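[audit] Reproducing an earlier prediction to check determinism. Same input, same settings, fresh worker. If the tokens differ from the archived copy the diff job will pick it up downstream; this log only records the rerun itself.
[audit] input (235 residues):
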Amino acid sequence: MASAPVHTPLIEDELEVLGALVPLSTQAIVELGCGAAHLARTLLQRHPGCQVTGLEVDERQHAKNLAQPMPGLHFVAAGAQAIPFADASFDLALMLKSLHHVPMDLMAQALGEAARVLRPGGHLYVSEPVYAGPFNDVIRIFNDEGVVRAAAQAAVDAALRTGTWEAVAERRFDMPVAFKDVADFEQRMMRPTFAEHHIDEAKLEAVRVALQPHLGPQGARFQRPMHVRLLRRRG
């Protein structure tokens, strides 16, 4: 008898996944590669007893973050491979779609740094997009991340083998992603401030063609598969 297909839940708010896995009431949190810190800002609205420090290497995004201050939220220009804080400074480290952006030869170092700044028993939450699905098919036209995403998972596997970490939980789910039109997709995905994808007219046209089947009256809508791995820092 064929096994029933595994149901992957649709999650609109990843903070629900995080909050179901770790306590969030009074945590000292560091987000490694925070981007615009959307989840961090929502987290602090719901859990004002927390303190969140966001690290970001993109100078333009870091400047935007500093221009939007919020109680309990602090920003530092730094990368995950060199966290400018003392040992055992945090209870929780977040890597939200950021580990695969760390240079491959520095991923192990970044995970070692996360272990260093976490207190014994602290958690590392690694959330990575899965290299599959219609959304990924469009993205890889101009930014094929197959190698770096596989390297990110391999780096987590290797970190677990060091004995520094223990695996606590894994979650798989889909997240909705929406764009108003092709121009919105181009601006947000093809021309980010943190990367240069060398966009030319041929790539633009290929993306336009690939987006057409997904465009409707409300724009282009996708479901992006995600894979979360929760690690605990051993004592």
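[audit] rerun output stored. Observation attached for the diff report: The two ends are 46 Å apart (CA to CA).
[audit] end
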